[in-house]
Amino acid sequence: MWRPSLIAIIGLAVFASTGFAESASSAVREANSLYLQGKYDEALRKYKNAQVESPADRRIMYNLGNAQYKLGQYASALSEYSNSALLEDSKARAQSHYNAGNALYRMGKLEDAVEQYLEALKNDPNDEDAKYNLEFVRQEMRRRMNEQQKRQQEQKDKEKKQQDQKQQGKEQHEKNDQQQQSDQQKDQSKQNSPSQQGTNGQQKPEQGKEQSQQNPSQTEQGEQAGGSEEKSQGQMSQGADQGSMSRENVQRWLDAVEAESANNMKDFLGKRQSGQVVATPKDW
Length: 284
Hints:
Helix content is 81%, strand content 0%. It is mainly α. It is rod-shaped and about 175 Å long.
């Protein structure tokens, strides 16, 4: 892995206070001392004070970026390292690119970090830290890519499983509906079966026939009852005929009735009933 503490020490070792203006160099010396003590906030203020005195000095920018990196201000540190990477000294440029790569890695920008490590090695091919971090970040990229592909595959498998379950449920539902319709059709076919209708239709007449054969007396009784009914109606007709006769005819008819014996009365009435109906007169 990269070594942030090594980064800071290298920066301080390379960019000492020599060659600064007196006020700027004094501020840088104080800032370096505070940095080594781990007092990064105070060191940052001192570096900014020195930058006011020498705003174009890229060595101050580099050390300012180191303090910001320690405070977790990676975007600000990256901006300072980008400026210090324009230094004339190749080794100083290599250290700026190397630190920029570390800041980018902290920001999650692995591809950009790789580019910075490669730039560091261009300026200093013997930078072992740059080689180590370059290989480390490349492995991390492959690991993250594999994890991402794995998550994507798991998500696809999950979605496919859900779709399969949904499709199976749909097919089962359709199968149940088809089975239910088939059962209903079978029940309806049984109810509308011609053989069953013929059987059912023949049973009742046969039963009626059997009843008719088994109970002939009932038929005879019915006929007798009908005969009685006819006789009753004959008697009523007789009454009607009687009402339509003239007085003279009625008297003759009564005489005849009295002359008939009791045994011949039934035949006489039957013969009278079978005769023509006398039209009802308008008046008597």
